[in-house]
Amino acid sequence: MNIDPSLLPSNVLWLFWPVFVLVILPALLRAPWRLLLENGLQPQFVGACGLVALAWSMGAGIQPGLELHLLGTTVLTLLFGRMLAIAGATGALVVLSALGLYEWQAFPVNGLLLAVLPVLIAHVVGYYAFRWLPHHLFIYIFVVAFFGAMVAMAAVLVASAVLYAAVGAYPLGLIWRDYLMVMPLLMFPEGFVTGILMTMCVVFRPEWVRTFDDRDYLAGK
Q: Average pLDDT over the chain, rounded to whole?
């Protein structure tokens, strides 16, 4: 999911810059940074972003630009909300780009695919699960965390594949065989790891989880 800029036309790469800026600026400005200070969660936020950067740095794949790795952005979203999650994931991408692991030319594309898209997907899944489903701990763990993380992973893989196919970077058969066919094998680990981490957080440190409230999920159950 680390986009290779050599596979995309330069005009396409430049086209993503204004889109990314229009998305990331409101997130940075509207993110509740004050809450991190008031709640003393700065170390947890930095640590979570560091783990996301570590997960993104361990990609593997057969073809350039078709690398696969865990995302971890659903955990960021559930812990800190979508605005801080987008900001934190973008910060992780800045670090990886500064270290030379990701290309600066592809920064806006990677930002939209890795920092924005999966966070918004996780947020939407959580929003509608809270609105339509019973407020129960197992719903939160298995639907919001586990299922939400799998859907976010699928969305990123499909969006990356569509982008490469649209610009003719690889034949459709190769994208399907070397990339999309292994999608289920990556979706389950993403959901499993997210579910385990969020289970530990809501059980032992519920005050860290912005999207979880004992009064909604535990009171009277």
A: 91
Residues 135 and 217: beta-carbon distance below 8 Å: yes
Q: 187 lies in which domain range?
A: 5-217
Q: What are phi and psi of 60, to 5 degrees?
A: -145, 145
Q: What is the CATH number of the domain that holds 114?
A: 1.10.1760.20
Q: pLDDT: is 6 or 151 the higher one?
A: 151
- In whole angstroms, give the CA distance from residue 175 to residue 170: 6
Query: Count of domains in the chain?
Result: 1
- Rounded-to-integer distance, Cα 170 and Cα 165, Å: 6
What is the structure's pLDDT at 196? 97
132: exposed, middle or buried (Cβ count in 10 Å: 0-12, 13-18, 19+) = exposed
Side chain identity at residue 157, one-letter code:
L
Name the nearest CA neighbour of 160 among 86, 76, 75, 67.
Answer: 67
